[in-house]
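Subject: for your reference before the review

Hello V.,

The reviewers asked for a structural picture of the protein, and I figured it would be easier to keep everything in one thread rather than splitting it across files. Below is the amino acid sequence we used in the manuscript, unchanged from the supplementary table.
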Amino acid sequence: MATIRVVLRKKKNKAGRFPIAIRITKDRKSSYLNTGQYIDEKFWDEKNRNVRKSHPNSKMLNNFISTKVAEANDKVLKSEMNPEYQTVSDIKTKIIATKGLDFFAVAEMHLQNLKNRNKHHQYDTEIGRIKKFKEFLDKDILPFNKLNSTVLKKFETFLLHKKKLAPRTVVNYLILIRTIFNLAISESIADRGLYPFGKGKMTIKIPEAQKIGFSTDEIQKLENAESLTEAQQKAVHVWLVSFYFAGIRVGDVLKLKWSDFNDGRLLYRMNKNSKLVSLKIPDKAIEIFNHYRKNSNYNGLVFPQLKGVNLNDTEEVSKRTQSITRNLNRRLKIAGKSLGIQKNISMHIARHSFGNISGDKIPIQMLQKLYRHSSVTTTIRYQANFIHKDADDALDSVVNF
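And here is what came back from the structure prediction:
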């Protein structure tokens, strides 16, 4: 007889929370059904197998758990009545198969996982992409056996030609669909044989992106800028600090605190992948920091843009950062135009500019460290946009005769 038990699994997510799961055990073998709910370990009552009352949503979560356990018990009883022997894996598959989970139901699981990991910006972006997929299909339910390469290729054409989206943006839509399908397979919701991606099916090819960075002359125009408005000057300062630290992302720049600086170094944890970074503070950055230190009244923050925001509320920080970034980019464009800079300027161009100026001067392993890339392959692909010397020399060797 198979048994059902609700457990808190010990593999925490990036937000430090643990998944609540339903464990199915038969013949000393166990399989797990993920409920999609995550909590801090301190809120789990191991003895009673439920969420402690100290959790703000304990009643709702415990009702949810009870419902899921009851559903699983019902399916186990029906499975056990089958005269054919069934393994724990068979039972799990039958439980999931009767849930009626389609692509969009699993998409909701994926979105909830993003929220649980505090990936609010990614959540906002991907919920919009899922809505656009629904718009294309003109339906709210999509069984996995109906999601094939033909549908995906039509969707790709729809995005490229009707919605006029850039090829790289279209790839992001397809990657999201692939991620959701992979989640369904990992949770035994969809059969691997239905997988619509790969050779002979829908292939995802990431187009080469054109990355254009500023030259030293253009950066010096920003450094020596005069007659800018106060708002424009603050935007330029944020841009320059990002550039001086090898293009750290705007969200990390805005959250810099004076306590992050010690012994002439910046020590901070990246928001994107939680990596701990230690970098020397360049003299040019010190000049900017000294300007803000004299007027520091931003609750410990170096820059004022996130003043008054609850930094512990990751969703609020994410939404405010998106809004602030739009304002910074708008002011940077005005400043760039007044300084005679022809290239388009945005906060992200700071990272490209560091790559453009570094070119092939810095060993790729050191660039990987400065960029905080997990893989040197990522660094090689990124930096290839800015290394032109060998190709230029080869060209000159042929045509200059």
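For the response letter, the relevant points are probably these. The chain has three domains: 3-97, 103-194, 216-358. The longest helix spans residues 314-338.

Happy to draft the paragraph if you're swamped.

O.
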